[in-house]
Amino acid sequence: MRAEERRQAIRELLQNSKQPVSASALAARFAVSRQIIVGDIALLRAAGAEISATPRGYVILRETAGLVRQVAVQHDAAGMEAELNAMVDQGCTVLDVIVEHPIYGQLTGPLQLVSRYDVAQFLARCSQPDARPLSELTEGIHLHTLSCPDEAAFDRVRQELRRLGVLLEG
């Protein structure tokens, strides 16, 4: 398979997948190295493909159903699990995390967390020795973009974050 054909096949696979696909899985499928896949993804992005790297693999982001809202929160590393579970338990998807960096400005990390399982997988990655969440750059202050089924779900998220003492309100 030529490189162009492989990139087109990767794009189609991601468009049709309901779950993130890891670089390792793509490498095994196309019998190339993981680094070749990383390069293919970079070239697809440069050509305009809206491919995001999430903690569980690559996805092509689709139109978000429901309401899209943001919450500002602050907590230490110990509060991360309760915060994320509070969001997914109300039926919301945690789309990303956003921090303000003094040099680079806004930094956004795609998350796409839908369930407690997703949260547990994300926390497992955060516990690796060379991994740190973006919120460590800002003394725990960060935003999350949420996709919620309705305003009531978003209100429940805010209520639960308030109960946990992590919601920043102005």
TrEMBL record:
Pfam families, per this entry? 3H, HTH_11
Q: Which Gene3D superfamilies match?
A: 3H domain, Winged helix-like DNA-binding domain superfamily/Winged helix DNA-binding domain
**Protein name, entry field:** Transcription repressor NadR
Q: Which residues form the 3H domain?
A: 71-167
Q: What are the residue boundaries of the Helix-turn-helix type domain, all occurrences included?
A: 6-58
PANTHER family the record matches:
TRANSCRIPTION REPRESSOR NIAR-RELATED
- Lineage per the UniProt record: Bacteria, Bacillati, Bacillota, Clostridia, Eubacteriales
InterPro entries the UniProt entry points to: 3H_dom_sf, 3H_domain, HTH_11, NadR, WH-like_DNA-bd_sf, WH_DNA-bd_sf
